[in-house]
Amino acid sequence: MNKITLTIALVFGFTIANAQDTTCTFFTGERIIEFNYYTSEALYEEKQTERYYDINVKHGDVLCLDLNDIHEYKKVRKVKITYFDGSTSEKILNSYNNYYYLSNNIVKVSVSKPRRKLK
To answer: What is the Cα–Cα distance from 40 to 42, expressed in whole angstroms?
Structure first.
């Protein structure tokens, strides 16, 4: 009986120790709003003045990108992803009312200003 109790306690402790947090960043045009994923409370807002906006991600966290560009022509964003091992990847994401969830050992995500969709 003691072994079962100990096993349950260890599994519960391990689950809590590895809990993930989710960060959400909303992009629309040049506006960027960082908000709490669980309560939808806006934490801060700013204007994207640089070519890329950098988001640092803590180890084990999940990043939600809410891309909502409603401009007639500008409907994609280039996203650069940096991983813990130093490798990088680039993706062109549709930015017309789409959500993207990123995890798996990500350190930093850089999101460009909206661009014209390439044909």
So the answer is: 6
Q: Give the mean model confidence (pLDDT) for residues 85-111.
A: 90
Between the two ends of the chain, the Cα-to-Cα distance in Å is 65
Tens digits of per-residue pLDDT, 31-58? 999 988 888 889 889 999 999 999 999 8
* ∠ CA 106-71-67, rounded to 5°: 20
Please state, in angstroms and rounded to a whole number, the distance separating the CA atoms of residues 77 and 71. 12
Closest CA to 29 of 72, 61, 58: 72
Q: What is the pTM of this model?
A: 0.76
Residues 6+ apart with CB under 8 A from 99: 64, 65, 66, 67
| Whether the Cβ atoms of residue 29 and residue 67 lie closer than 8 Å to each other | no
Cα(100)–Cα(48) distance, rounded to whole angstroms? 19
